[in-house]
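Handout, section B. The chain below has 280 residues.
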Amino acid sequence: MENYEKTGYLKNDFRIFHLKDARKMDIAYHYHDFDKIVLFLSGDVTYSIEGRRYELRPYDVILVNAGEIHRPMIHSDMPYERIIIYVSSGFMREYRDENYDLSRCFQEAREKHGNVLRIDNLEKSSLFAVCRELERSFSSQEYANGLYQKVLFLEFMIWLNRALINNHANYLENEVSNEKIAAIVDYINAHLKDEITVDGLAEHFFVSRSYLMHLFKAETGYSIGSYISEKRLLLAKTQIQNGMSVTEACYACGFKDYSTFSRAFKKKFQTTPKHSGKII
C-alpha cells in the first residue's frame, strides 16, 4: 500500500488506501479532480459535502464526485477507520455503453444530493469481500497483478451499481447545515457558464453581500470567487478531455478572457489547457 498523500494527487486509473487515525483531527474543506469512494469502518464522524452533512454509521459508502467540496468532521478520539478509493473520471468513462455505465452511482449521487449509501449487510456482502481483496492485491507481487487489480476494481464497481439497481442500497438522507448556502452552491454549479457575481447572488437570495460572503466562507471553507473559479476550471478540464476545443471550453465555462483562463488553468493543473486533453 502506498502512503496516503494529503494533497490527493492521482497518477493512476485508481488507488486504494486503508487509513486508521487514533486521535481527533481537524481536516479542512477540500476537493479533488478525480472521484472518490470511502468505505467508512469506524469513528465518530459527520461527512460534509457541498453544504450537506451526513451522520455516518459503520459500513456506509461515501461517493464524492470530482470537484465536490467535502470534509470529514471528526467529533472525538474514537478511531476513525476507512478504506478510500481514488478513481480517475476518465477511466470510468471507458466503461459505459447502452447496457451499463459504471459511473452511474456517482451520477445519481450528484443528481439526488445523496452522497452516502447505506447498503444492507455490507460487511457480509460480495462487494465488501472484493474491496478487501483489492486492498490486499496492492501488497502482492503475484503474476499479472496489475491486471488482477483492474479486474477486481471493475468487479467492485459492478457490485456497487448492482446494489443500487436491485434496491439493496439506499441514499442516506442528508442534513443541510445551512439551507441557503446549499441552495447557493446548487445555483452556482447550475450556472457556471453564466456570469455570476457576489452582488447578483446576494440579490437573488435576499441576503446582504457581507453576510453572504461570511456565511459561504464559514460553511465551505472557500470564498465565493475562489469557489466559482475552481469549479469553472474543473469543468473546463472535463470539457476539453471530452473533446471540446480549448477556446470553446474557456468561454463555455464562464471565462471572459482566454489569457486569464490559460494562466489560471496552468497554475491549477501544472499544464496548459491544450496539453490537458489526454486523460491520465
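Note. The longest helix spans residues 145-165. Compare this with the example in section A.
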